[in-house]
Design goal:
The protein is of the alpha+beta class. It has helices at residues 17-27, 68-79, 123-139, 143-146, 163-172, 179-190, 233-236, 238-241, 245-255, 259-280, 285-300, and strands at residues 36-38, 46-51, 55-60, 90-94, 104-108, 113-114, 200-202, 211-214, 217-221, 228-230. Helix 10 packs antiparallel against helix 11.
């Protein structure tokens, strides 16, 4: 697994503990004497550092992640009371400085381990718990988040907006996967009727790296950088991105989604896998494995 210092993007802004110390000393001096340590993470948008025992610092590492901190600071406190699993608690937002160009955040530390199979006692319970979280999130009034300019997110949009990138990824993977098979699976979802209902809240990236387990059970959902409103199918993609064939139906039954939303969710999962695999192949083995697994689960379903 990569550490926060690992480089994943050609134009990435690099960070290290000394930078975090300088930023804290200038802006939050009461915290500057706490220990600062990089956190092992496969996250692609933000570098993560543990601050003392009770806090974490997140700094965007790439330009497209700029604005995520402000978004989390604004919306997570509003969403948290409605959700059955813990989510990050923002504590403070820092400003650019000492050569670092963007805003950054301090959060309360959430204890747990990535909710990979070895950390989950009952996968069926995990599927149900995740569905409960998605249902609860979708029930929160999304009116304010739906207003123009309220949120910046690439998730929850019609699949057609991802078509060009997905087809380019299929071409780039031609030596490894059968292009016709991938194209047929993608078009099956792409040509499904679009979501005609009201936009709902979406986490946008429900995969093992953003789920925490404690005592063998799903306990928290982290990294809301993709938070947005839109088509509920975006979070349905967890059925293939995170779950397996043995637990997928439990997830679907608890969500009670229609056939079209389920089909679009499969398309979201496929698009995530196809777009991640060539981009992160040499820089992020964890995300590469997640992408490969998503493709395999979709094709096998």
């Amino acid at each position: 697994m990569l550490t926060s210092a690992g480089k994943m993007h050609a134009d990435e802004v690099m960070t290290d503990p000394s930078l975090v110390y300088r930023l804290l000393s200038a802006q939050f001096p009461d915290w500057a004497d706490l220990s600062i340590a990089p956190v092992a993470s496969a996250g692609t948008d933000n570098a993560l550092y543990r601050l003392g025992e009770e806090m974490a610092v997140r700094l965007p590492r790439i330009h497209w992640a700029v604005g995520q901190v402000e978004k989390e600071m604004r919306w997570l406190p509003r969403l948290a009371p409605h959700l059955p699993l813990a989510i990050p608690e923002p504590l403070a937002m820092g400003e650019a400085g000492h050569g670092y160009p963007w805003r950054w955040g301090v959060y309360r530390w959430l204890a747990g381990e990535n909710a990979t199979p070895e950390h989950i006692t009952d996968p069926r319970q995990a599927a149900f718990d995740l569905a409960e979280f998605v249902v609860a999130l979708q029930k929160v009034d999304a009116t304010q988040g739906s207003r123009p300019g309220a949120l910046k997110s690439s998730r929850g949009v019609p699949l057609a907006e991802r078509d060009g990138a997905v087809r380019a990824a299929i071409v780039s993977l031609a030596g490894e996967w059968d292009s016709d098979t991938l194209t047929a699976a993608w078009e099956s979802a792409l040509y499904t009727p679009v979501w005609a209902g009201a936009p709902v809240w979406l986490h946008g990236d429900l995969q093992a790296g953003n789920l925490l387990a404690r005592n063998g059970r799903l306990a928290a959902v982290i990294d809301f950088g993709c938070l947005g409103v839109g088509d509920p199918a975006c979070d349905v993609m967890a059925a293939w991105l995170y779950l397996c064939a043995d637990t997928r139906q439990i997830f679907r039954d608890a969500l009670q989604v229609d056939d079209d939303t389920w089909a679009r969710g499969k398309g979201w999962a496929l698009s995530m896998g196809l777009m991640a695999l060539p981009y992160y192949r040499t820089t992020n083995p964890v995300l590469t494995a997640i992408g490969r697994r998503a493709i395999e689960e979709v094709l096998a379903d």
